[in-house]
Specification:
Elements: H1 2-5, H2 10-13, H3 20-32, H4 36-39, H5 48-59, H6 64-75, H7 84-100, H8 107-117, H9 123-131, H10 138-155, E1 215-218, E2 232-235, E3 242-243, E4 249-254, E5 259-262, E6 269-271, E7 274-283, E8 288-298, E9 305-308, H11 309-314, E10 318-321, E11 325-330, E12 333-341, E13 344-347, E14 355-356, H12 362-368, H13 374-382, E15 386-387, H14 398-403, H15 414-422, E16 428-434, E17 437-438, E18 447-453, E19 458-464, H16 470-485, E20 491-494, H17 503-511, E21 515-518, H18 528-548, H19 555-567, H20 579-584, E22 599-603, E23 616-624, E24 631-635, E25 641-644, E26 647-650, E27 667-668, E28 689-690
Parallel strand pairs: 1-5, 2-9, 3-8, 14-15, 16-20, 19-28, 20-21
Antiparallel strand pairs: 2-13, 4-7, 5-6, 7-8, 10-11, 11-12, 12-13, 16-18, 17-27, 18-19, 22-23, 22-26, 23-24, 24-25
Helix pairs in contact: 3-5, 6-7, 18-19
Length: 711
């Protein structure tokens, strides 16, 4: 359905008129929406049609044994879920598997199995359907069952959070008769002790063996393809709203005592790690309005966020469920709507990818963007790339104050300004070497060379083990610029260092008809743009390392992250567009940015863990992986590098990656530390995009990362 809605189905159907662009879009849509376990089947597919065919062949089994097993499971289908929606979802999934195996049952058979599988509390409704002379469809039956479930939950609602049935409480508490009305078990069986002849509310056996040492509740937990994982399912079985994304919470408080929920999938227990308020934009049927979901539970392992219809009803709202939609009303006025997909209802909410943020998160974005100046941050807010932030000036930041302190620079003369302006073209590249930097990086690098396209200010940095590697780095830079942007470099401007004045560099420049321009000895001001860039780069790197508490040897990762940040933000010389936009003709996304060194949790693929091992590992954020839509992380346990796209961040609390922090993060030995750049202090120049292992091209399109609903 998603590919059809985007006009991409032709790539799957084999339509010869499908353009190459749509073929690539369809291929990307399939691959990027697969889980890690499914990705292995299509990772080397060349086309969308091939990827689709592989998935179809993997999931469609037509052998006799499979059909017999499906029929047996269908014939013995029983109610084992925590909510009616979860139960229906399991039945729907089973029916779909049978249809794919060419043994699909009729709608009448599905209705019969659903009625037979219901618990005793639905007996009166089951008898009404069986005695009815009027025909009814499966959708009619499901709608009635969900409505009946909502009615039963309202009648049996208790103080503790419940989902489908009452949550287990602490201690030997006996509910008052007027508070709880429990359904009668089979043949008058007590739900508490299992004996016949009395109800659970009158049971004298206390809580017995069912008593738990911590709070528990249950929720219908189900995954459904066709909607993004950040969508919200309207669930009648969950009495509390539940969200899996920590960043979606506007207000948040961690849970300090053990609490769990039970899913409809084999009674899997999921941990509740916090609660708070989530802000969404929802569609009422006539307009978009802001909605606050209070007392929302943070359940990290959910595959979908859950919008509780029971919680909405508890706040005085009414829920109307029809064949294809759901309407939530307050006093007769619609306040939210949902639409049906399969047998699930999805909340009509704003799942856009624009970067919204609360007013008090301006400082958070200052940290995410490598402690960039508030002038640059305000320009980003003003052009609409960050929604909801306030424009601030002169905000005191201790990290910036101690890591960016410099002498006041001289004013730029008119002659220097004219010379600089006339040379602003991407055919002119200025370069400088940074270092030696102590200590060496984890990969053994002690230097970094920078190359700046003077018109766009797009900066590329290569880490080096020794200065003599500058020539080979420039050769790679030249080829990549020519391939990526079509720009042919004509001038290379640098100082008189031996790394630029050598036979290898001279031979390459002559072969490519590149003119080398050198500064006058002891006058680095003539290469002011490169000098100023190095200063900006060092300041951002120093700030990020200081705040994160990471070891000094991670300067290379901080350097790369700082360069990525500056290339996607506007600057004083190009106020209306970023360097990335000028080079690649595309506005970069920033909603995937995170605070360097922030504590996070990366998902561990099931192929790399045992059944009872943790599915996540605690890490620290090191930057953005090159040429992949993934994050680069540091494993907090063993210090290894982790590459993952399934990551949960904890940015709101500053977590130090090491026990000690050095005020002087690292030392840079310059030939002349008294050099002042030819640019003024208040002029923002973007820092370079860097490469860590000299394995990837220096110029690359900024990876966009799809995020969930902005709140």
């Amino acid at each position: 359905m998603y590919l059809m809605s985007k006009g991409l189905w032709g790539a799957i159907a084999g339509d010869e008129t499908t353009s190459e662009a749509k073929e690539q879009q369809a291929h990307a849509a399939i691959v990027l929406n697969l889980s890690d376990s499914q990705l292995m089947h299509v990772i080397d597919s060349a086309t969308a049609r091939e990827a689709w065919g592989r998935l179809a062949r993997f999931h469609h089994s037509h052998d006799m044994a499979n059909r017999l097993w499906l029929k047996e499971k269908f014939a013995s289908f029983k109610y084992a879920a925590s909510s009616m929606s979860g139960h229906v979802m399991e039945l729907e999934d089973l029916v779909m598997k049978m249809k794919r195996a060419n043994c699909g049952p009729s709608e009448e058979d599905v209705c019969a199995v659903l009625l037979r599988s219901l618990p005793a509390s639905f007996e009166s409704l089951v008898q009404a359907f069986r005695m009815s002379v009027a025909s009814f469809s499966f959708s009619d039956l499901v709608s009635k069952l969900i409505a009946e479930e909502v009615r039963q939950n309202e009648a049996a609602r208790v103080e503790d959070a419940t989902a489908l049935y009452a949550g287990k409480r602490k201690g030997k508490q006996y509910p008052k008769k007027q508070q709880v009305r429990r359904a009668k078990g089979p043949s008058g069986t007590c739900y508490n002790c299992g004996k016949v002849g009395h109800y659970a509310r009158d049971c004298r056996s206390g809580r017995g063996p069912r008593e738990q040492q911590h709070d528990q509740s249950n929720v219908a937990f189900h995954a459904s393809e066709g909607f993004a994982s950040d969508s919200w399912v309207m669930d009648s079985g969950a009495s509390a709203h539940m969200c899996k994304d920590r960043d979606a919470f506007e207000e948040y408080e961690e849970v300090h005592h053990a609490r769990s929920i039970s899913s409809a999938k084999s009674n899997v227990k999921l941990n509740v790690i916090g609660h708070g308020t989530v802000k969404l934009r929802v569609w009422t049927g006539h307009a978009w309005i802001d909605a606050r979901l209070e007392n929302t539970l943070h359940v990290q392992d959910l595959s979908k966020n859950l919008f509780s219809l029971t919680a909405a009803a508890a706040r005085g709202m009414t829920v109307e469920i029809t064949r294809n939609e759901c309407v939530v009303k307050r006093g007769g006025t619609p306040v939210a709507t949902g639409r049906k997909q399969g047998f699930l209802l999805y909340l009509n909410a704003d799942y856009g990818t624009e970067c919204h943020m609360a007013e008090d998160d301006t400082e958070l974005w200052h940290r995410r963007l490598g402690h960039v100046s508030y002038g640059t941050l305000n320009a980003t807010v003003k052009d609409g790339r960050i929604k909801g932030a306030t424009m601030k000036t002169n905000v005191a930041c201790d990290v910036c104050a101690t890591s960016k302190q410099v002498r006041k620079s001289f004013k730029t003369s008119e002659e220097d300004a004219e010379t600089r302006e006339s040379s602003r073209s991407d055919v002119v590249v200025c370069s400088d070497v940074l270092g030696p930097i102590t200590p060496a990086s984890k990969s053994g690098f002690s230097y970094a060379v920078t190359f700046i396209l003077m018109k766009s200010r797009y900066v590329t940095v290569y880490p080096l083990r020794k200065k003599s590697d500058v020539a080979s780095a420039f050769e790679r830079f030249y080829q990549d610029v020519k391939t990526t942007s079509g720009t042919k470099i004509k001038v290379l401007r640098s100082d008189n260092g031996g790394e630029y004045r050598n036979e290898t560099m001279n031979s390459f420049c002559k072969a490519k008809f590149i003119k080398q321009e050198f500064t006058v000895p002891y006058n680095p001001e003539q290469n002011g743009m490169a000098e100023r860039m190095n200063r900006t780069l060092v300041e951002m790197t120093r700030c990020m390392l200081k705040e994160s508490g990471l070891d000094k040897s991670y300067w290379c990762e901080a350097l790369m992250t700082a360069a990525d940040i500056r290339n996607i933000l506007p600057n004083a010389s190009n106020k209306n567009s970023s360097p990335h936009e000028m080079v690649f003709k595309k506005v970069p996304r920033i909603d995937h940015m995170r605070v360097f060194g922030a504590q996070c949790y990366a998902h561990v693929a099931k192929e790399k863990r045992k059944k009872l091992d943790d599915s996540g590992v605690r890490c620290f954020f090191l930057g953005y992986e090159k040429d992949q839509k993934a994050y680069r992380l540091l494993n907090a346990d063993d210090g290894s590098i982790v590459i993952s796209r399934s990551v949960t961040f904890a940015e709101h609390s500053v977590t130090k990656a090491s026990k000690s922090r050095d005020t002087q993060v690292f030392d840079v030995i310059e030939e002349d530390e008294s050099v002042e750049a030819s640019l003024t202090d208040d002029e923002d120049i973007p820092a370079p995009v860097t490469e860590e292992e000299l394995r990837t091209p220096p110029l690359r399109a900024q990876n966009s990362s799809h995020h969930g609903p902005s709140v």
